[in-house]
Design a protein that fits this description.
The protein is mainly beta and about 200 residues long. The protein contains one helix and twelve strands. The strands form two sheets. A seven-stranded mixed beta sheet has the order 1-9-10-11-12-8-7, covered by helices on one side. Strands 2-6-5-4-3 form a five-stranded antiparallel beta sheet, with no helix packed on it. It is globular and about 45 Å long. It starts with a strand and ends in a 28-residue tail after the last strand.
Length: about 200
């Protein structure tokens, strides 16, 4: 799902983004609600729903499933001035949670090509949400989610063409007792649960 965000940037620099686990949903510019299953339409062990929320050049993901709820925010958060963590591993509400982030710095022509590649891949994905800012087709925020029987995972991209920086994140929630597959710094081309290749640009 691809939409145009009728707003200007709310987070103007990649370095302004902060990470938070927990809290409350923030006002969103676009929302997509997903029913969790194993990619075949049958409810998986985790059950429940996953909500993808675009806040501008930032995002929230809200899980209501399995043993407990979880809310992840990557945004410009008042009082938080520390950079995004490179990696986080925590236990939350019966889940094993992992988060990883990186920032790519790209020349303008490479950035524009990377942006269009990502948007094309995400646009037709059944579990994705992307928002493009008016005035620059390379200014966007995108999320894509996947689910299998005991694990939910998602990836996000936050594009800052004025800086030539692309913020890429990976997150996963695994049912406790399931060995989590650590967030990889590089895509491996393997298909996700519905047979579609994961977007490789950026990670």
């Amino acid at each position: 799902m691809l939409t145009t965000l009728q707003t200007s940037y709310t987070d103007t620099r990649a370095g302004d983004l902060a990470w938070q686990l927990g809290g409350e949903p923030l006002p969103a510019l676009a929302v997509r609600d997903l029913r969790l299953d194993d990619g075949t339409g049958r409810s998986g062990a985790v059950g429940g729903t996953l909500q993808l929320r675009l806040l501008g050049a930032s995002h929230q993901v809200v899980l209501a499933a399995g043993p407990g709820d979880c809310l992840e925010t990557v945004a410009c958060l008042p009082g938080r001035r520390t950079p995004l963590p490179a990696r986080v591993a925590e236990q939350v509400a019966g889940w094993e949670y992992e988060f990883a982030a990186r920032i790519e710095e790209l020349p303008s022509h490479v950035f524009a090509a990377r942006a269009q590649e990502l948007l094309a891949l995400v646009e037709g994905h059944p579990r994705a949400l992307a928002g493009v800012f008016p005035g620059d087709p390379s200014a966007f925020t995108a999320l894509v989610a996947h689910c299998d029987e005991r694990r939910v995972h998602w990836r996000t991209w936050h594009a800052y063409p004025q800086e030539g920086r692309l913020v890429c994140t990976r997150s996963s929630l695994s049912l406790r007792g399931t060995a989590p597959r650590a967030a990889r710094p590089d895509g491996d081309g393997r298909p996700d649960g519905d047979g579609r290749p994961e977007p490789q640009a950026g990670w």
